[in-house]
Amino acid sequence: MNKPLKQHLIDPEICIRCYTCEMTCPLEAITHDDNNVVVDAEKCNFCMDCIPVCPTGSIDEWRIVTTPYSLDEQFGWEDLPEQKDLGDSGGEVEALDDTIEALLAEAHKGAGGRSRAPASAAKPTVNLYNLGKPATARVQGTYRLTSEESGAEVRHIILDFGNQSLPVLEGQSIGITPPGVDAKGKPHLPRLYSVSSPRDGERPHYNNLSLTVKREDGGVCSTYLCDLKMGDEVKVTGPFGATFLMPDDPSARLLMICTGTGSAPFRAFTMRRQRVAAGASGDMVMFFGARTPDSLPYFGPLNKVPERLLKKHLVFSRIPGVAKEYVQDRMMVEQEVIAEMLADPATHIYICGLKGMEQGVEQSFKNIAESTGMPWEATRDVMRDEGRYHVETY
Ligand code: NAP
């Protein structure tokens, strides 16, 4: 038997093809083809730089092998192979496991970690269209959601898929490939956008979906998307994401925390409940941070959603003459509500938006949980294992 090696792998079912790991790896050990993002066992030196940057935890897969899986094998996978039984290795395998576990424990110090789907979530379809075989959508509508004065342009873009089947669940993302090439002359990689409409379409029973896109200064894909006109064709990959999903159980309680366009999946969650479970016993509570009311996507429609369906805490950071407030600050103000939800096994937590919010939100959860004698890290890890704790930040 060759000396065993703990091979670093990526779960193709859960990976959302954001390519952040590939861009982060200092050794260029991570690469992709039209289908999958994979790790080259010959180059990976277990530096773990890619672990905390992965928004889904799909990067955190390991198999002890005597012959590493080749790149070609990994490119062909739809899901990961099971760990093979390597028999008695005289303690070598166990020692190897301990070494990697110690490195991983350090990399996992943040709030991130391997995510699981809610137990009652519907089974998502993933990776139906890839770079080599994208779907073609047509722009059916494009509307500015934020005021001219706010300075931020966020658009609601509706894509129609005609007779192509692109089934999505609330919380899933699709990839949009901007035309043209990057600075190195290579075709642009797709950028990911959360679908902001529910599974039965932006308009019920139409084969369409919506995206919530903010124009970023110098942003290749956001500029492309925000400049699109009605009828334009768009290349789409996906759908992606198998864990940041909504429970189908109407008694599940949803605690949703977002900033800016990170609200996209929560629009989909809310519309899903409105359409199929408006009288659900599980409540929905949202903490949503934006600079000002006129830069908060869907401010008007959101305010029309009844409080009995969705309890809204809209939080603003740049209202002149008013103290800056972030979502994590409002969570502390509403700590009794949150403490009660944390203690309830029906509660599912979703955090989506700016990477920078993660630490502050985590700290507020810790303060709130621990003030009621609940150990936060242990509570969070149980919730994550049960598919009740989800983070998607970029
Ligand atoms: P933004 O307008 O830059 O910020 C929204 C709010 O978050 C502002 O009030 C901002 O306050 C506040 N904020 C800044 N730092 C914070 C922190 N450390 N903790 C808590 N709040 C903080 O947001 P955006 O440009 O829309 O960005 C949203 C993010 O969501 C992006 O990173 C995007 O990639 C991600 N996302 C988007 C989608 C999608 O489908 N479009 C899906 C998932 C995630 P100040 O600026 O006043 O400090």
Cα(first) to Cα(last) distance is 42 Å
Order of strands across the widest beta sheet?
8-7-10-5-6-9
Number of separate structural domains: 3
Low-confidence stretches: none
SS-based structural class? alpha/beta
The name of the CATH topology of the largest domain is: Rossmann fold
What hetero molecules are in the model?
NADP nicotinamide-adenine-dinucleotide phosphate
Corresponding CATH architecture of the largest domain: 3-Layer(aba) Sandwich
Helix proportion range: 10-25%
Strand content: 15-25%
Gyration radius from CA atoms, angstroms: 21 Å
Biggest sheet: strands, sense, closure? 6 strands, antiparallel
Number of strands: 15
What's the level 1 CATH class of the largest domain?
Alpha Beta
The average pLDDT value, as a whole number, equals: 93
